[in-house]
Design a protein that fits this description.
The chain is built from 12 helices and 14 strands. The protein is of the alpha/beta class.
Length: 413
């Protein structure tokens, strides 16, 4: 039997489905479509990942559609503690700039979908990701890694409802409760969680268009940010942010507060054209204020706590690690292997970093640690009292120059 249900499979095998449900147009239509097309019971799952939206309407809509088992889970602390923080220990960025805000949320949603499927005895899970994007891959790779025989229903790969107007017509035909908001609809497709908010579509589909200033929701424009810089101090324990200005904060609270501070100072905006795993280029814009601050602070504390070769090896491994997350392989053994190495490196990454936030910039202005490897007696330009014999450098240079001199002699012959 195929793992991925498609139009032609025996729908009678599917009695109950767990749907990743937002309460919006797409997933509300999917809910009814699953009931009609598969003749199955639908369990809804809505995750609170800090997207800043009221989730009670999702429950009300599911109840109005006759759903008996409704899960609305606050996953904010788990999200930051078990997914965001481990990723930031690696300083992970995709294609040089992207802090993976959407990518890192998907393995947690997949994990919870599988847990609920087990709890409710469901035969399958379903999601609202389209057949063009990365999220379908991330959801399904995660699900199969955790439950290899789970069935996955991806309506966008099956149905003929091609756009918003056909979805609205379907909703009207089947009396699906959809909010008809007044005013102009945002032209952007948006996805938010505690780490970031993303924008795609609309005028962004032309890479030549500058993102309109009114698009950004979390951050001030740097031009209009405060004219005075703000100093903050982040305390690190084993590579993770643990305190802010001397106050211990939980992971989710820490990220939320750094988002607030970064937003005030216009930090964390990004406009990029990325290479999707499915093969196309896609232009998107992102706001990641807290994550931008965290990355800068983490690299600063590592700079005094990590051995040189460990730090350089981490930097070599990071692009591979970031690509694994972007492509949906969070639960793969190679990611676990890399994570073990990364976490090993963080055992002595402890201390505090002082940062200055100013008009879109995060500047490191100080770092201290009881585990520092920085030795002022050796590094000083003043008299070091014989701690470092500068004459030793001559032999070091000659040994490293030996092959270069041999090459030069050959080439000059």
């Amino acid at each position: 039997m195929s793992d991925v249900t498609s139009a032609g499979d025996n729908h009678a095998d599917i009695k109950k489905v767990v749907l990743a449900y937002s309460g919006g147009l797409d997933t509300s239509v999917i809910l009814k479509w699953l009931e009609l097309e598969y003749g199955c019971e639908v369990v809804t799952f809505t995750a609170d990942l800090g997207q800043g939206e009221e989730l009670d309407p999702a429950r009300a809509k599911a109840e109005a559609m006759g759903v008996k088992e409704i899960y609305i889970d606050d996953l904010r602390e788990e999200f930051v503690r078990d997914f965001v923080y481990p990723m930031f220990r690696a300083n992970a960025i995709y294609e040089g700039v992207y802090l993976l805000g959407t990518s890192i949320a998907r393995p947690l949603i997949a994990k919870r979908l599988i847990e609920i499927a087990r709890e409710t005895g469901a035969d399958a899970i379903s999601h609202g990701a389209t057949g063009k994007g990365n999220d379908q891959v991330r959801f399904e790779l995660g699900a199969y890694a955790l439950e290899p025989d789970i069935k996955v229903i991806a309506p966008w790969r099956e149905w003929d409802l091609g756009g918003r107007e056909t979805l609205l017509a379907y909703a009207d035909k089947h009396n699906i409760p959809i909010e008809k908001t007044r005013g102009a609809k945002s032209p952007f497709s948006q996805d938010a969680n505690l780490l970031h908010i993303s924008y795609e579509g609309g005028p962004l589909e032309d890479p030549a268009n500058e993102p309109p200033s009114e698009m950004w929701r979390w951050s001030s424009s740097p031009e209009f940010a405060p004219n005075e810089g703000q100093y903050i101090e982040i305390g690190y324990e084993n590579g993770d942010p643990a305190s802010l200005d001397g106050k211990t904060l939980s992971p989710a609270t820490m990220l939320a507060e750094l988002n607030r501070l970064g937003g005030i100072h216009g930090i964390g905006r990004l406009d990029m054209v990325e290479n999707r795993f499915v093969g196309m280029k896609s232009r998107g814009a992102y706001e990641t204020p807290g994550g931008t601050i965290m990355l800068t602070g983490h690299r600063a504390i590592e700079s005094i706590c990590l051995d040189r070769e460990v730090a350089h090896l981490k930097d070599e491994l990071m692009p591979r690690y970031a690509k694994l997350i972007y492509n949906g392989f969070w639960w793969a053994p190679e990611r676990h292997m890399l994570q073990a190495a990364i976490d090993y490196s963080q055992a002595r990454v402890n201390g505090t970093v002082t940062l200055k936030l100013y008009k879109g910039n995060v500047m490191v202005v100080g770092r201290t640690s009881a585990d520092t490897l920085f030795d002022e007696k050796i590094a000083t330009f003043e008299d070091d009292g014989g701690t470092y014999d500068q004459a030793d450098a001559a032999g070091f240079i000659k040994l490293n120059a030996l092959r270069l001199r041999n090459l030069a002699r050959r080439d000059l012959r």
